[in-house]
Specification:
The chain has about 160 residues and is mostly beta strands. It has one domain: Electron Transport, Fmn-binding Protein, Chain A (Pnp Oxidase, Chain A), CATH 2.30.110.10. It contains three helices and twelve strands. A seven-stranded antiparallel sheet has the order 3-2-6-9-10-5-4.
Length: about 160
């Protein structure tokens, strides 16, 4: 059976029709430096045990730091944190400069004023295609009443009003 060829640009555009939350995943590297990256591939995996997942490009310069970290934190961004999302999507900036941070499990940073925080033990990781899938076991979490930052069709958006 042959696979149908899917155009990469069309695939990306179609996936963009699915609104996602915006997160910044952070950890502390083996030499003590903080690492972080904007992620919208975050998802819940299991309630029992409590597991979440996210993925990172296999060519990312942050890959080894996240693979070796004992823990990572998922910082769920609030609608007023677009600048933080943009900052952590870049590679050549001091991402943590002038941010209010607190120390999370495993020593990794948590970004202040987010909508929610999910702290995880680095449970496992697996390579699929051009990404590494990280699975985390949730050990601590917190939330606020802020509204989420969303990403849809290549643009940031808010949640708007509840419809049901």
């Amino acid at each position: 059976m042959s696979r149908q060829t899917v155009d990469a640009n069309e695939f990306r555009r179609t996936l963009g029709c699915f609104a996602t939350g915006v997160t910044v995943v952070t950890a502390v590297g083996v030499d003590g430096e903080f690492v972080g990256v904007t992620v919208n591939s975050f998802n819940s995996l299991s309630l029992d045990p409590p597991l979440v997942l996210w993925s990172l490009d296999a060519n990312s310069p942050l890959l080894q730091a996240f693979e070796r970290a004992s823990h990572f934190a998922v910082n769920v961004l609030a609608e007023d944190q677009i600048e933080i999302s943009q900052r952590f999507a870049l590679s050549a900036v001091d991402k943590f400069a002038q941010l209010k941070l607190s120390k999370g499990l495993g020593g990794g940073p948590q970004i202040a004023e987010c909508m929610a925080w999910i702290e995880c033990r680095n449970y496992s990781h697996h390579r699929y295609g051009d990404h590494l899938l990280f699975i985390g076991e949730v050990e601590r979490l917190a939330e606020t009443s802020k509204k989420p930052l969303l990403y849809l069709r290549g643009h940031y958006t808010g949640a708007g009003e509840r419809v049901a």
